[in-house]
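Write out the 3D structure for:
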Amino acid sequence: MLNNCVLFKGLEPAYIQQLLDCVQSATKIYGCGELIWTPFESNSKIGIILKGKVTVYANLYCGNEIIINQLCNNDIIGLSCPWSGNKVFPAFIKTNCECTILFLTQQSLLKLFELDCTIFNNFMVYISSRLRYLISKIELLAISNTKERLLCFICQQIKHKEDRIKLNKSKLINQLSISHASLYRALNQLENEQYIKKHSDGSISLKLDLNNR
């Protein structure tokens, strides 16, 4: 199972277990809807989701909840914790179903990096991918116009003009911090203005030139 985690990419399961036997780790099972971390508690570990799905979200001062990310099997949570001067995790992480999480401390991670440099390389690659994701998220939230924010999101998801995506509207409302009415209005505007095309299977494709975005 762990060989599917980005941290151990390229390593054999038996070898991964040998490495883990050399460091301290802890596995914990959470029920559906349980909070794993909050901004009100100290933490210096990362977690690897062995089973299940979690939502990372923040509460805004106005009272609204904004979804930062949704993570599942083999994803890593708490990347900022081990080397942050502030040991408090800056958001909430809540389970969407029963989850099994493997926790590793900073000392354990450093030992794993020392035992096999592949793990360190995988860790840095994963951090880079998360930074790119956060940049795209900030780009979305910085756009005040709902139609433009939605178009930006669709462009981020579609890599080729012939590609199609299916939008989970319930998740999208939280991801983009918009209402149901605003989402449907923006979708209709984008279709009427020839930016997107809706298909009979519920998917969406882009009609604009991707090279000019």
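Residues 117-141 form the longest helix (25 residues).
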